[in-house]
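Anyone have tokens for IclR family transcriptional regulator? Sequence:
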Amino acid sequence: MNRLDVLFEQIRGCRLCEAHLPLGPRPVIRGAESARLLIIGQAPGTRVHASGIPWDDPSGDRLRRWLGVDKETFYDESRIAIMPMGLCYPGRGKSGDLPPRPECAPTWHDKVLMLLPNIELTLLIGQYAQHHYLGKAAKGTLTETVRHWADYGPAWLPLPHPSPRNTLWLKKNPWFEQDVILHLKQRVTPLLG
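Reply: yep, here.
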């Protein structure tokens, strides 16, 4: 086993916030040292918690369409690494899933990133990833951060969550599909080729 595999084994055994997880811990993370694309999302939902496979839901279907890749390519760990802000399902709140647990990113992200030396593009999906990684460079709203996507390149690309709940947002912001998704596909094709 290489160092990343050892770290992933430690992460998958993490019980740091077990008392706060309604379905118990089941950290979801994947990747390989050769990966060139990193996807940082929010936290697994109930379907992903059940399957243990990241983006194994309608949000993942839309994300794969945005990337222009099939499932086989998407789940090829040698090309794409996936690390959510919260590694386990955080539970349900009044208007959807709760925010990612605050322990995960500070505990694990830097350790993982040190072992992913070939990442050329990181997708920051949703406000939690954007605020964590862009810090003060993030704009006041997710819409404004995504609208200014070119300011964060070439290493970062902020995206809204591909959830079906965001269909109205996509309709209100046609520039996203016209500009950002076009750019995303142009970046991803050579990275994964």
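The longest strand covers residues 121-125.
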